[in-house]
Amino acid sequence: MKRSFTLLILTTLVSNLAMAGGGWVKQKGTGYYKVSHWWVSAAKVYTFDGNTQTSPQEGIFNTSIYAEYGINDKLTAIINLPFSKSANDQESISGIGDTDLAFKFRINKPGSQFALAYTFLLGLPIGDNAGGSDGSLQTGDGEFNQLMRFDLSRSFPIGKVNAYANIYVGYNNRTKGFSDEARFGFEAGAGFLDNKIWTIVRIDGVESFQNGDPSDATSDGATVFANNTEFIATTYEIAGYITDKIGVSAAYGSVLSASLIFASPSYSLGVFFDMK
Questions:
Q1: For 177, phi and psi rounded to 5 degrees?
Q2: How many Å apart are CA 63 and CA 57, to the nearest integer?
């Protein structure tokens, strides 16, 4: 029987598709672009009942291009394109991973205290879902999913520090035997040194509806993209501007509770261009 555990890829995706603007959309002609490297490697996994057990060493390494662009003042286009390497003790595969294409629509009126946005995301199954000599290495899950998400954000001062908070809820419709998912989360950030340094904390959650067909799910294998994954995860990030538009970031991710994912933290480093 093949192993069905997943990486904490969603945490990183939710970090990138965090969506870097929350409930805010980009103004027409402005953008946000980021190149990042994210990785995780583990010899333990969370089982279906939330306990941990040892497993063969396995990891994945993503170098991603993430971009947001304001089509107009109400609509932002978003893409996340990962170049992935999946490896175990014996072999590895690499290539373009599953890619996300999204559109974010502003719902609130200009000048509102709260920023409210709706995002429609398409998960394109570009990656390999059966790589390696035994089909156990993957850079994708082989299924086409559609995520619908609402973000509600607000910025506010804390003394002389600029801060913001964001909450979101979403529904991920999955295909090819995968169970649909409820997604939810919270994010808070604060800017220091005239907003040159930002510290960010995220909590992201996934809850499976357990409505898939295991006999059809392409992740029923020694894979890093499992069906019925559930978790509550935290990400801690720091980002700093080197110039008015160019900056660097670093992040650390872990889980508070989980089933069917790696029992190991994730790390990422990035360089971004903020075209304000």
A1: 85, -5
A2: 20
Distance between CA atoms of residues 209 and 219, nearest Å: 17
d(CA 36, CA 38): 6
When pLDDT is averaged across residues 123-141 and rounded to a whole number, the result is 82
Cβ–Cβ under 8 Å, residues 52 and 46? yes
144-183: pLDDT as tens digits: 999 999 999 999 999 999 999 999 999 999 999 999 999 9
| Token representation of residue 194 | 């005239």
User: Looking at this protein, which amino acid is placed at residue 43?
Assistant: A
C-alpha closest to that of 150 among 165, 169, 133? 169
Round to whole Å and give the CA distance between 194 and 245.
14
> Which of 175, 273, 182, 252 lies closest to 217, judged by CA?
175
Task: Tell me if the pTM is above 0.85.
Answer: yes
Q: In sequence order, what are the beta bridge partners of 247?
A: 241, 272
CA proximity to 100, closest of 181, 29, 16, 171: 16
